[in-house]
Amino acid sequence: xxxxxxxxxxxxxxxxxxxxxxxxxxxxxxxxxxxxxxxxxxxxxxxxxxxxxxxxxxxxxxxxxxxxxxxxxxxxxxxxxxxxxxxxxxxxxxxxxxxxxxxxxxxxxxxxxxxxxxxxxxxxxxxxxxxxxxxxxxxxxxxxxxxxxxxxxxxxxxxxxxxxxxxxxxxxxxxxxxxxxxxxxxxxxxxxxxxxxxxxxxxxxxxxxxxxxxxxxxxxxxxxxxxxxxxxxxxxxxxxxxxxxxxxxxxxxxxxxxxxxxxxxxxxxxxxxxxxxxxxxxxxxxxxxxxxxxxxxxxxxxxxxxxxxxxxxxxxxxxxxxxxxxxxxxxxxxxxxxxxxxxxxxxxxxxxxxxxxxxxxxxxxxxxxxxxx
Length: 373
What we know:
Blueprint: E1 16-20, E2 24-25, E3 34-37, E4 44-49, E5 65-69, E6 74-78, E7 81-91, E8 96-104, E9 107-111, E10 116-119, E11 135-139, E12 147-153, E13 160-167, E14 172-179, E15 191-195, E16 198-203, E17 207-211, E18 221-224, E19 244-249, E20 252-257, E21 267-273, E22 281-288, H1 289-294, H2 296-299, E23 309-313, E24 320-325, E25 328-333, E26 338-344, E27 360-364
Parallel strand pairs: 1-4, 2-4
Antiparallel strand pairs: 1-27, 3-4, 5-6, 6-9, 7-8, 9-10, 11-12, 12-13, 13-14, 15-16, 16-17, 17-18, 19-20, 20-21, 21-22, 23-24, 24-25, 25-26
């Protein structure tokens, strides 16, 4: 069969993309702050921000980083800049803390539909942001375009936790005190997703916590991972996002697990939270890597029989899970054990030896994006 001609019609555009978390920095000819180089999965789409958003050369420690995405076209971006060492004291109502600081904190809400960037104001000193991995963004249920950025802050042993919130409607930061269901274990943040009008804070060692920042109910919803998958405190420290992932797929929250203890059989498991108020996960799909390697579709990729790094789950099809291996990003239908997509990926950073799921975002696209994107 003859190869397709160069004039053949392009494939239909994808309704979602795999977005690299680390952006490029470049001035746009039209002066816009945001643009996106879109490409269909499994290739990686790259976001570019203007020097106004990130005015210094990126380094290995300081670079623009997408924290979360929303189908509305909004993205939450961290753009911390390095600075000379300073001693900073945070005064709170009942205590204070002092630490050395080497950076200037800067956060932006980007709007891909208008190619604009809004810099969030700095919180007052008493309302300091603790960790960027605890920050999430969720749209207002009123449909008026307003949003809330919120950080979950917890102190071990306390019965209350704090939500530090920025409301686009109010234009300022404020705190909400909430009941904290687990007092004896520290929360290890890795990221936040929005789902069903709530923010879901993720600790890949033991579960998720959810809360609707637009309500005044004082309790957080805690959903531990399934029995047998909760890790000991500090187990898998620093590597859990190479083997685990939590995200939305097919309108439900999914937990993908490839973490293996001891002499266990290496496998990939897809667990589903049936509805946002459920506290139990259901095992939906599972396959061993030996079964995947044995399929002719995997053999056709010529990749080695090596445990890959988990990347993400398809946001529309919960059967398909993506992995990194060598230079490739490939998708596997876990139910059939078949490789359904495989392409060489390209990221701004990091190098492949440091790759993990936090360097990608599954982004369901707003319709339409500007033609420049």
